[in-house]
Protein 1
Amino acid sequence: MKPLVLAVLNIVLLLAMPAAALGQQSLISDPEIYEKKHFQEQCKAVEFADGFVTRQDINNDGLIDAVVNEGLLTCDGQKGPRCNDDGCTYNFYLQVAEGGYFMIATAQIYGYDFVQRFGNMVLAMKMHPRFCDRTEGDPCIVTARVRGTKFVTISKK
């Protein structure tokens, strides 16, 4: 009976360990250096326009976070190589008090505004109309607040 219990316990641990390992990211020292290095390795010739990285506090904790707009890079002559009808890839990084950053989200959006609503700063992201259950028309505006390490949708219009 004990060998069966040990075998089941080993299987449970083997299944749980990879999930636990994936659940925690390593901190990076600077998202700008990290992202630029990534594209310098991917592209033979790469250029980064002003605004490629925006530094601002996106989660209202007083620490300066970073937002990377991949639409503002040119890779081998192609501007915004991952941009499509849904917009361009934006990577959102949070800074932690211990030092370093981690990526909280990646979104395919047209852009965003950082606005104050009810005393808190929130992201008003311009997205493809399908995100508001429309097939055409003006971009959908998804307003989200960062709580802890998650984007919380406040409204869609």
Note: The mean pLDDT is 85.
Protein 2
Amino acid sequence: MVDVSQHELVPDHVLLDDPEDVEEVLAEYDVKKTDLPKIKRTDPAIPDDAEVGDVVKIVRNSRTTDEAVVYRLVVS
């Protein structure tokens, strides 16, 4: 089976496993966890240890800002 997370076009997906990190992100954007965009648990790019309700940080390359960081809430 192919590991899609290792493909050069797939951005880095990092699980925020520290609750304090999640709270900092939510406070920075002044949102609730449920307001974050969603990503399915079955998405092949997310870390294997991600559970429903976790937050994933996605770091994409960007021509204008070098890196673009977005956050997603894992759903079933």
Note: The two ends are 22 Å apart (CA to CA).
